[in-house]
Amino acid sequence: MTSYVENETDVIFVFDGHKVIRQVMEAVLETEGCPYEASINVLLTDDDGIREYNRRYRGIDQATDVLSFPNIEYAIPADFSVLEGREADYFDLDSGELALGDIILSVDKVKEQAEKYGHSKRREFAFLITHSMLHLCGYDHMEEEEASVMEEKQNYILGQLGITREE
Question: Which residues contact residue 48 at a Cβ distance below 8 angstroms, ignoring those fewer than 6 apart?
Fold first, then answer.
């Protein structure tokens, strides 16, 4: 399991962001029954940076907390059988890992939302990575039922990791 992380900001958190990403990634993939070693790319940026990515890729000219760019189109969330026979499309030829996709995270929103919701920056960071990882596994929250499923999964995964709002 590999997470490639690039930080284009000067922000340094008091927690180990790489460690949190690895823990969340492992927990999500285990929970979703992913049978493969996988990799993700994570870009840490600020509100201006994520606003530009949001405008460019989604046509929305405003900052957001996290953007997810899945590499896989799932008919059913986390149905990894869609990959069978299509290894050349989804697996890194050098590492052999499943390339799940890309995550862009606003460090400004991590700080802002942690304060707004009254929990630690580590908890907010882990929540946003969990949320985005679920998107990379094919989940969405456009409909109320989908949102409920994602929320339940997020809470379960963060609970498994002992990352709570009380931090």
Answer: 63
